[in-house]
Every structure is written in structure tokens, then in C-alpha cells.
């Protein structure tokens, strides 16, 4: 059989060449395809490489966004935020209805009985015989030995801080057997009162009352002044730590007094320990409750204010409630608490802090936490909160209320609801004529003395914030009224829980307030513990039971 012509012409070598060409063409095609694939990837902007990089970048950004997206902050703990104005808006109609019901003819007798019970001394009376002042029986009287020299002190702070310094100064003078020079008062940047001792207290009465126990003179003798070129600052200042023991004064101060004949201690605030020998405690009592009588001008107006307040209280038999309201600008600023005044309030408080304390609140590391302050009961009560609390405790709108305070912060706003709750509200400014108050204006300690006198004579005293004023007042009332005068000292850590609940009902609110009142009554009778102040707890150092056994 004959092969085709083509086969015949090519022969064996021609076939090999054709197969080689085909293989070469396939290899070239494969190489070209691979090259085109690579070029296509680059020409498309990096191809899958760029797309992968972009996807990776987006993924990383997404992860960062997820990490940065913090969970929403938890809601404030109960009692952290000032919402009292919202609670008042909810409860005011119920308060009015409650007052209307109490005043109705069918409940008139029970209402009067309730008012009388609210204006009586605490139900938790002392057991056994009543307590009475007995300072005189505890004071030893003998001829004073020759004086070791003169003691000068500088009292600082407000009225009752000055009072504390004076009492302790007499005690230290007795320890040193020194003659006390009538104390001078430091002009404080907060109180800004230039009053002298004699402007506030009766100097002659002070000297006479202490005559048998400590020598007191109005000024240094001329010969002593001459030794120091009439320059008081040249007299050595024996700087003393707070709450120093009697031993410190005898060992450290007395030698210098004997050497120079005169020493001074400035400042002199809380410079003597609370616990001292009984004769020194008795001397403190004598000074505080007997020797420190207000000046004639203060006593005259203060007695008139008490009479006028008693006459205003005809619906309650001449009995009235006094409230020490600490909502002055400096107190609100110092507390670092926030209320409902927004940015305006914040700016005013920042300015007040800087004006009075110059950077103290901006120091490195200082943390200000208004919410924690409020939960811990450290925030001053607003006038509105005081009014709501007292109404919840059972004092109705026929209660006569005396408010002792300085200039209330933003008073037009904050005092209005308190007047709304208690229409029979009075202050020294409303009880006194402008011309009667004129001599006291600009003198915070003298004005505080007026408030102090009216509060001492009230049937019930309400303290809303710590400080020397309520502490001295509670002690003075205990001393005058058998060791047990009704004082309401609310637990503000419990109070703020009710003030922070806009959905609370009136019956529940009342129940909470009355529980706080009962807790306060339980603590009304108290005896001084070793580190307590004798000026707040005069029993048993200044008082004895009537049978004389204690």
C-alpha cells in the first residue's frame, strides 16, 4: 500500500521537526500567558495584592473601632445626683392635700396634738434624775499664786471657732499660771470680720467671772510692751500643734514664759487636747457657759428677736423650730458638690474657690467627685431639701420656722420653695428693723451671735451641716435644758436616696423621713467620750444628776 504524498515527502526527519515546533509553540504560549497574568495583576493597581492589603487595613480599622467603642457608662449610684427639685414637683400637690386634710375640722384636734408632739423634747428621755449644771461645785477656789507672766493668743475663724479658742486659752493660762491678755481676732479671708473681742463679748463680765480662777487683763502693761519696742510681733511665738497635751505646755511653753515674762501663740485654734484633768474641763465649762456673755448691743437685739419670734408662733403656743442653714456661696463652693445650676453654677463655684482658697482645689493629684460627696452625705442641704425633709417628718405649714444663716447662695431661687412649704418663715432680717441691724452689717460674727441666741431658745433645733455653730449650739442647749433638748441631726446618706428618686410617692417619702427623725431622736441624749468635744457633750464634765451621784 502506498503512503500519501505528504508522508512520502516529509520522511522521518520532517515529522520530528513538526512535533518539536508544536512543543515550542505550546511552551511559548504558556510563558506568554503567565507573563500576561502577572502584568494584568500589576496593571489593575496591584490586583489582588492591593485588594488584600486594603481589606487587611479595613479589618484592622474595624478592630480598632470595636476596641475603642467603650460600653456606655453605668447609671449613677442611687443618691449621687441632685434631683430634689424634680421630686418636689412630683410631691408638692400631695403635700398640699396632706396639709389641707390635717387642717380640716374633723382632724383639727389630732392635728393640734401632732404639732404639740413634734415640738416637744425627744421621746428618748434620760433615765433617772435629770441633769443640771454643776460647774460651781466642781471648781476649787483659793487665792491665786503670783503670775508667771502674760499669755497672748490669736483666735481665728468665725464666731464659734473664736469661742473655742477663748475657752482653751483660759484653760492653758490656768495650766501655766499665766495672766491671759484678752484675745485678739485674726481677720480671716473667708469671714472678713474686723470685730474686736469687746464688740462680740462682754469684756468686764468675762474678767469678773474668771477672777477667782484665772487673771485676765485687757492689754499688756506698758513696761512689758516697752521691752519689745511696742511691737507685738517681736514677742516670741510658741507655735503649737493641734490638740497638744497639758504636758506639752508645761514642758515647752512654761520655761519660755518664765524666761521672758510673756509669750504668744498664733494661731490658736484647737490647740489643747479634748481630754484634760477634770479641773481644767470644769474651767472650760465655766468659760463657755458663763463667762462668754455676748456684748450689751448684741444681747439687747437678740432678746427682742426671741420675743418677736415667740409672738409669731401663736399657733404652736409660742414654740418654734430653728434651722441652721449652711448654703452660703463659700460653703457650697468648699463642698465641691453640684446642684441644678448648670454651667453658670460651675463658673461661680470655680471663681469662689479660687477667690477664697487660691488654687487649693487645683493642686496636682486632687480629685473632686461631686457624686461621691453627695452619696457620703457631705453636700449642704438646699433650703428646698430642708423644707421637704421637715414636712415629711410631720411639721406642717402652721409651723413657725426661724432660719439662721449667712447670705444664701442664689437666694431668690433656692429660698422660694422653702417659703412656699413653710409660709411662717422668719430670719433676723425679717424680724429686725433695718436700722436695728445697721450696726451689725458687715460683721459676720456679730450677726451669727444674733442667730445663735434665737436658736438656743427654740423648741427644736435642726442642723443641716457640720461645723462649730451647730456643735456649740447643741452643747449649749443640752446644758440649759437638762441634758436633753430636741435636736434634729439627719443622716444625709439616707436623705439623698429619697431626694434622688423622682418616682417616689408621698406616703413612702414621709415614712423615710420619719425613720430618719426617729434615728436622730435616739442619738439626742449623749455623753462625752474621750475624744469628743466638751462643747458639744457637756455631760458629765459640766453637769451632774440632781441627786448628786454623778
Topology:
Layout: H1 5-43, H2 47-68, H3 84-103, H4 108-118, E1 131-133, H5 135-138, E2 150-155, H6 159-176, E3 179-181, E4 184-185, H7 197-200, H8 203-209, E5 216-217, H9 222-227, H10 246-260, E6 262-265, H11 278-291, H12 296-312, E7 321-324, H13 329-335, H14 342-357, H15 370-375, H16 383-393, E8 401-404, H17 411-421, E9 425-426, H18 428-431, H19 434-437, H20 444-456, E10 460-463, H21 468-480, E11 487-488, H22 492-499, H23 506-522, E12 543-545
Parallel strand pairs: 2-3, 2-4, 2-6, 3-5, 7-8, 7-10, 8-9, 10-11
Antiparallel strand pairs: 1-12
Helix pairs in contact: 3-16, 6-11, 8-11, 12-20, 13-14, 16-17, 16-23
What do these coordinates show?
With 550 residues, the chain is of the alpha/beta class. The chain has helices at 5-43, 47-68, 84-103, 108-118, 135-138, 159-176, 197-200, 203-209, 222-227, 246-260, 278-291, 296-312, 329-335, 342-357, 370-375, 383-393, 411-421, 428-431, 434-437, 444-456, 468-480, 492-499, 506-522, and strands at 131-133, 150-155, 179-181, 184-185, 216-217, 262-265, 321-324, 401-404, 425-426, 460-463, 487-488, 543-545. Strands 2, 3, 4, 5 and 6 form a five-stranded parallel beta sheet that branches. Strands 9-8-7-10-11 form a five-stranded parallel beta sheet. A two-stranded antiparallel sheet has the order 1-12. The longest helix has 39 residues, at 5-43. The termini are far apart. Belongs to the glycosyltransferase GT106 family. One of its GO terms (biological process) is fucose metabolic process. Keywords: Carbohydrate metabolism, Fucose metabolism, Glycosyltransferase, Transferase.
Amino acid at each position: 500500500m502506498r503512503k500519501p504524498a505528504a508522508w512520502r515527502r516529509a520522511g522521518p526527519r520532517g515529522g520530528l521537526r513538526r512535533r518539536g515546533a508544536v512543543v515550542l509553540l505550546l511552551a511559548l504560549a504558556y510563558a506568554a500567558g503567565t507573563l500576561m497574568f502577572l502584568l494584568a495583576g500589576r496593571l489593575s493597581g496591584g490586583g489582588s495584592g492591593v485588594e488584600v492589603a486594603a481589606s487587611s487595613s479595613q479589618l484592622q480599622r474595624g478592630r480598632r473601632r470595636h476596641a475603642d467603642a467603650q460600653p456606655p457608662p453605668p447609671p449613677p449610684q442611687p443618691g449621687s445626683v441632685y434631683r430634689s427639685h424634680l421630686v418636689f414637683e412630683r410631691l408638692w400637690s400631695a403635700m398640699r392635700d396632706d396639709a389641707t386634710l390635717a387642717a380640716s375640722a374633723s382632724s383639727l384636734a389630732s392635728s393640734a396634738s401632732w404639732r404639740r408632739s413634734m415640738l416637744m423634747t425627744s421621746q428618748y428621755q434620760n433615765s433617772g434624775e435629770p441633769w443640771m449644771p454643776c460647774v460651781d461645785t466642781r471648781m476649787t477656789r483659793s487665792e491665786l499664786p503670783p503670775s508667771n507672766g502674760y499669755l497672748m493668743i490669736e483666735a481665728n475663724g468665725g464666731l464659734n471657732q473664736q469661742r473655742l479658742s477663748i475657752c482653751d486659752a483660759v484653760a492653758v493660762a490656768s495650766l501655766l499660771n499665766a495672766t491671759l491678755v484678752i484675745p485678739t481676732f485674726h481677720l480671716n479671708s473667708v469671714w472678713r470680720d474686723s470685730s474686736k473681742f469687746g464688740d462680740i463679748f462682754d469684756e468686764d463680765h468675762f474678767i469678773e467671772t474668771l477672777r477667782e480662777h484665772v487673771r485676765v487683763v485687757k492689754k499688756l502693761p506698758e513696761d512689758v510692751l516697752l521691752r519689745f519696742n511696742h511691737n507685738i510681733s517681736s514677742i516670741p511665738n510658741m507655735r503649737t500643734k493641734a490638740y497638744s497635751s497639758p504636758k506639752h505646755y508645761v514642758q515647752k511653753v512654761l520655761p519660755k514664759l518664765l524666761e521672758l515674762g510673756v509669750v504668744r501663740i498664733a494661731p490658736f485654734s484647737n490647740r489643747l487636747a479634748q481630754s484634760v484633768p477634770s479641773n481644767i474641763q470644769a474651767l472650760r465649762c465655766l468659760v463657755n457657759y458663763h463667762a462668754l456673755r455676748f456684748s450689751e448691743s448684741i444681747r439687747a437685739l437678740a432678746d427682742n428677736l426671741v420675743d418677736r419670734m415667740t409672738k409669731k408662733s401663736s399657733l404652736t403656743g409660742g414654740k418654734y423650730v430653728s434651722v441652721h442653714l449652711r448654703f452660703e456661696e463659700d460653703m457650697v463652693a468648699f463642698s465641691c458638690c453640684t446642684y441644678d445650676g448648670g454651667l453658670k453654677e460651675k463658673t461661680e463655684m470655680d471663681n469662689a474657690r479660687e477667690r477664697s482658697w487660691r488654687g487649693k482645689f487645683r493642686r496636682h493629684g486632687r480629685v473632686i467627685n461631686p457624686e461621691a460627696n453627695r452619696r457620703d452625705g457631705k453636700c449642704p442641704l438646699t433650703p428646698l431639701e430642708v423644707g421637704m425633709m421637715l414636712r415629711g417628718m410631720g411639721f406642717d405649714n402652721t409651723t413657725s420656722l426661724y432660719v439662721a444663716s449667712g447670705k444664701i447662695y442664689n437666694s431668690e431661687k433656692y429660698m422660694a420653695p422653702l417659703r412656699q412649704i413653710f409660709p411662717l418663715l422668719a430670719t433676723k432680717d425679717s424680724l429686725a428693723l433695718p436700722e436695728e441691724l445697721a450696726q451689725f452689717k458687715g460683721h459676720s460674727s456679730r450677726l451669727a451671735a444674733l442667730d445663735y441666741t434665737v436658736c438656743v431658745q427654740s423648741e427644736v433645733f435642726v442642723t443641716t451641716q457640720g461645723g462649730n455653730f451647730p456643735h456649740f449650739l447643741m452643747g449649749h442647749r443640752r446644758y440649759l435644758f437638762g441634758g436633753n433638748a430636741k435636736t434634729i441631726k439627719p443622716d444625709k446618706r439616707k436623705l439623698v436616696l429619697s431626694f434622688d428618686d423622682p418616682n417616689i410617692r408621698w406616703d413612702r417619702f414621709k415614712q423615710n423621713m420619719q425613720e430618719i427623725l426617729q434615728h436622730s431622736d435616739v442619738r439626742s441624749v449623749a455623753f462625752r467620750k474621750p475624744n469628743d468635744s466638751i462643747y458639744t457633750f457637756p455631760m458629765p464634765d459640766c453637769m451632774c444628776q440632781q441627786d448628786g451621784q454623778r
